[in-house]
Amino acid sequence: xxxxxxxxxxxxxxxxxxxxxxxxxxxxxxxxxxxxxxxxxxxxxxxxxxxxxxxxxxxxxxxxxxxxxxxxxxxxxxxxxxxxxxxxxxxxxxxxxxxxxxxxxxxxxxxxxxxxxxxxxxxxxxxxxxxxxxxxxxxxxxxxxxxxxxxxxxxxxxxxxxxxxxxxxxxxxxxxxxxxxxxxxxxxxxxxxxxx
Length: 196
Fold this sequence. Notes:
Layout: H1 2-17, H2 27-44, H3 54-68, H4 71-79, H5 88-111, E1 117-126, E2 129-137, E3 142-151, E4 157-164, E5 167-168, H6 169-183, H7 186-195
Antiparallel strand pairs: 1-2, 2-3, 3-4, 4-5
Helix pairs in contact: 2-3, 4-5, 4-6
């Protein structure tokens, strides 16, 4: 009987994990999918492609990104040990400036991918953190784009890092900010962010 049970369980596993199987994605992946599809829907909307609609399109995209990304956590991770040294007012201003830079960077990347396909690959969930691996498929290349997410246990998953073609967005900024702060002041860093 155990042999038969093993065969049945094996066949069930093969069915569930095969293409078109019934395995449901995690809440993290489902929420990310919803946000990405909303972004693509905006980018593909013919009424929003006109130059006269550029500002309206950007505002709509920013709202979608703001709802899914946690710019405070991203700011904290990018400043690393320098975060604790900052006053509440400095932290607040940094989150606004850095958040705007991140939105501009991410949206600019996505605006270049309007007609391509986004494919969801692996997902790894460990307690309150997740990594959702995707790739953007163009006619000539495939671009890996992996999202690192977290939840505070309220069923809401937020992005805290994006790995683009193997390079962590937050890791990249953390390295840049560390070098800037070793050579200059926090005020100089803020001035550079304002100019960007």
